[in-house]
TrEMBL record:
The gene is fliU. It comes from the Bacteria. Keywords: Cell projection, Cilium, Flagellum. This is Flagellar biosynthetic protein fliU.
């Protein structure tokens, strides 16, 4: 592996874990996988302060599909890792140091992957402190290329052909540039990205590689046209989709996080979902005013989407059509959380960070959610991208 450059957001090196001061410990609310090497080390632990705890609270994960999840920690009756002490600090780290932590606990909320000759690093918005760094930058997320420093932990490696690599870079640079084009509302930017993806969807795969660079420049230029807003307003809102999304993911979806379930249950709590779609649409529009007027929120949502695109989009893992569906579904659900609580929110930094962080932790790391996202867009009548675009306007 010949790594010649490192690419990361400028916020990356500013992150520091705040430990027991964190409002939502990373050691609760989800399964914590233990890599095979650490699992075997824990099984041989001789320190009397740790040995019995590890024997009782570490188990083999027989359903694991990789060595990174070879084992797992037992969760207590509050869904917290059983290795936490009363101050929510890790007993393993306190007793044996950071080097004794398993792979998952060492890297989180950091993420690293290599794509051909570069390594890329980012942070995850499911961590409150990382979310603050990502979401609250008023100038938007910027990136820096530096001399490579390989992380001390393992990271995903992706190899792409020259054609595929050029296609990937053209797509991702276009999406990030369009998302940060603040001349237009965020919804307009997302629709233009959707029109670009729809154009690619109509081409044969081999032709996409050839035309991506030219098309990305063409669609980015559309955002310089003040009249582009007129085009996007022709895309009519689909309130049936919005209502179904609200019911399925915010009212019927049960997460492990009590914080998420409480937030979701309060969303549109004054709405009778047994009434007509027109009644729901009117409530949506009534609540939307504060959402539209909050500049802090619009910047935070832009930063969230840019970070997600940088960290998660990768053609060797998921093509741009599937990624765009995930991007818009996430955006739509977060927007519904904010609009549906607009009569209670003041849209402070604290409310913005908490809402996006709770969503990220409860949904994006939940395989049930991910699988349902893939099913929610039917392809029977229209293309996947066409129906995804219909989620944007409200």
């Amino acid at each position: 592996m010949n790594i010649v450059k490192e690419l990361k957001p400028t916020y990356f090196d500013d992150f520091k874990c705040i430990g027991s001061e964190c409002e939502d410990t990373c050691c609760a609310g989800w399964n914590i996988g233990i890599d095979k090497k650490s699992f075997k080390k824990y099984r041989k632990e001789t320190n009397p302060n740790l040995k019995s705890l590890l024997q009782k609270n570490v188990s083999r994960n027989r359903q694991a599909t990789s060595d990174y999840h070879y084992g797992q920690f037992k969760m207590d009756d509050q869904d917290k890792c059983s290795m936490l002490n009363e101050e929510n600090l890790c007993t393993i780290q306190l007793t044996s140091g950071e080097e004794a932590l398993c792979h998952t606990c060492t890297i989180y909320p950091r993420s690293a992957k290599s794509i051909n000759d570069s390594i890329e690093k980012s942070l995850d918005t499911s961590c409150p402190e990382a979310a603050r760094l990502i979401l609250l930058n008023p100038n938007g997320i910027d990136f820096v290329e530096v001399e490579p420093e390989l992380p001390k932990y393992n990271f995903a490696q992706h190899r792409q052909s020259d054609e595929q690599n050029q296609y990937f870079w053209a797509n991702r640079m276009f999406m990030i540039s369009a998302l940060q084009h603040r001349v237009h509302p965020l919804e307009v930017r997302l629709i233009v990205i959707g029109l670009y993806v729809k154009k690619l969807e109509e081409l044969e795969p081999a032709e996409r590689f050839v035309q991506a660079q030219t098309l990305s420049s063409q669609y980015l230029a559309y955002l310089d046209d003040a009249n582009i807003t007129d085009l996007t307003t022709q895309i009519k809102p689909n309130y049936d989709f919005q209502k179904a999304l609200t019911l399925f993911f915010l009212k019927d979806f049960s997460a492990r996080s009590s914080r998420f379930n409480q937030l979701a249950s309060c969303t549109f709590d004054e709405v009778n979902f047994g009434d007509s779609t027109e009644s729901f649409a009117q409530s949506l529009l009534n609540y939307k005013t504060q959402y539209d007027q909050s500049e802090l929120l619009q910047i935070a949502l832009e930063n969230y989407l840019v970070n997600l695109t940088f960290a998660e989009y990768n053609e060797s893992k998921e093509d741009i059509i599937s990624f765009y569906t995930l991007l818009i579904t996430n955006f739509s659900l977060i927007r519904l959380l904010f609009i549906g609580n607009g009569h209670k929110f003041s849209y402070t930094n604290e409310e913005i960070v908490a809402t996006i962080q709770i969503f990220s932790k409860s949904c994006l790391h939940n395989t049930t959610y991910i699988n349902n996202v893939k099913k929610i867009i039917s392809t029977k009548q229209y293309s996947q991208t066409s129906q995804t675009i219909n989620l944007i306007n409200i």
